[in-house]
Amino acid sequence: MQAITVFRNIVINTVKMCRTFSVTKLENTHCRLNSKCVSDQMQNEISERSNQVPSLEDENAECMNLELNVDADRKDTSVIEPCTEDISTFSPYIRPSFNFAAYINNSPVLQELIKLGVNLHRLERRKGVPEFILQMDFNQNMKEHIRFLHDLGVPADELGDFITKNPWIFKDELDNLQVRVNYLQSKKFSAEMITRVVRKNPHWLSFSAENIDQRLGHFQKTFKLNGDEVRSLAVGKPKLVTYDMTHIKRNTFSLKEEMGFSDDEMRSLLLRQPKLWLKSNKPLLVVFDYVHNVMKLTHQQIVDFPEILKSRTFRVKQRHLFLELLGRAQYNPKLEGYISPKAIVSGTDSEFCQAVAKSSVEAFNIFLKSI
Amino acid sequence: MVYVSKAPTVWNLLKGVVCIYKPAGITAAYVRKILLGNICRDLCELETRPPASHVFIEGNPSTSLNVHVSPSFADHPLVVGPRYQPDDFRCTWGAPIGKNISGVFVLGLNEGNKIVKNLHMQRPTRVFRLKGLLGQATDTYFSDGKVVEKATFRHVNRSKLDTLVASIQAAHQKQMFHQSGVDIQSQTAYELAVQGLIKPANSKIPILYGIKCIHFEPPNFTIEVQCINEHEVYLKTLVHDIGMKLHSVATCTSIQCIRYDSFTLEHALLRKHWTLQHLMDSMSESSRLLKETEADKRQKSAFLVKSDMSRLKAPVVNNDEIETLY
Lengths: 371, 326
Hints:
heterodimer; A: 371 residues; mainly alpha; elongated; B: 326 residues; alpha+beta; 3 domains; 8-stranded mixed beta sheet; two-stranded antiparallel ribbon; PsdUridine_synth_N (chain B); Putative tRNA pseudouridine synthase 2 (chain B); PsdUridine_synth_cat_dom_sf (chain B)
């Protein structure tokens, strides 16, 4: 029974896609079908979108109607007589397809998106996006949004990337987007700050003002930040604000309870290295375990150089082991030959070997083949 | 020296065997994923083919029609995806390698898969360095497990360990003749035995050809084994068994493969060198190496080949060699 339902869904989707495309096709080629038919079809589609779950029988009936209309126009001529009228604009509907490539040579919308640099290949894998994009009209639904984004300060060469990341931006009304920008202005974000937020996080504008307010409030309350700090956090790492809150709470828990950072230390970490909250929980714990329990760095040292928690474990591990082999693994600033935790993780291998390990990269490579 | 900037030319050259240094802690499948991702990234940065042309006819059929040709949007990389994708490659390995093993790992790319498979079917020997820790045993036989037993190890010394590994080697040599697939009392068995070391007929039973302790500094020790048909768990339990036989307990802390057939650590590419240029170099190096050792002409017979026999004596990279470099 379940298999049948699945099959049915697929059929409905493909018919829908096919139909959506045929509207554009008719406009392009000035097809002889009367405009009533087209408008009927569009109305059907609109009502269909509101209904959301059309049955297969309805679909079939509509298709039949369309065919009847065509037949009605041509029934006065016999098939045996030579055809004198222009039928070159008639063509079969484009078949349902699994990607955009089948439609793009005939679709101005998709061509415009490509000119902007939108990566359709990535979009078509996302659920619901292909149907959404195919139902768009560039002039009606997209132009104003793109102008709005450009006015906000998103440069033309970043627009493609922006839309690739968040195609749903076209779903929101312009007024709503303006409200979200106004909210930021009311919270004393300057124009440059707003530009940076929107450029760095294409998803930001798709979140309602209340939602953003709630999220900023959560950071302010949990970490006891003042207004300026919240703003610098939002501008420094806009992705953090719209990220999955469960994940952020889990990492906050890990940093506080499992790793044992105090509230003040956590605030400092958040402001200096907000990326730690985006990192997956397990790698974060593993790298902390290595840094704290094997390299014996104190919490204070980690807070002073949070970059070390950001890097991957194998990178820290191989460089620490190399320093240990050379007898240079000395991380106490009060003693001679101090090496700062930041110096361990920054730079390429050759820079590290030259400046920190005072050895050659060849020796480092041979060492790497022994672990 | 020839410089190639066209991706299709490079793609045609991408067939052969690559030898890389697999880090411990990641699976072979993950290594493959990183490798193919890197190759595709580097290939797409080269000059790829332009989109195919799209021919279309426009105009009024009753007056005049025009034929237009333009680059097809349907073949644009933004629509159909990058020109080279990981799915386009065939890439497998012959000898399986466990997650916790680091070291030499040989993979085939495209047509190279056949070579790798044939090489594996000949069952070449592999050499491992096993690091052990005396005094504790874990539930997984490896250092990542939970410690389940502790024991003293003050009574263990170098000579006891050497005696033990020598007896293990002797037992395996005896086993080797039993596993040769012929009656041990027959003339054939005698003729096999006078030739030297032989391979087991069964491909499932591990055989150790050589095992020796190369470093002993209690509680840490390192042993080197030359073997056939081994697998990760077998090597871990070997260390565990050595601990038990020494009237103590031991855990394996690292397994490193230092040789597979004629591929050694010096041929292996480090993780930071898994780029197109280095992999191409590795491929030509491997094909030269396989040609020199006549990998394709090697035997179907039961004996170890000469190259294997000569290598059983000397370790591949000396620890002393590394230390002189610093």
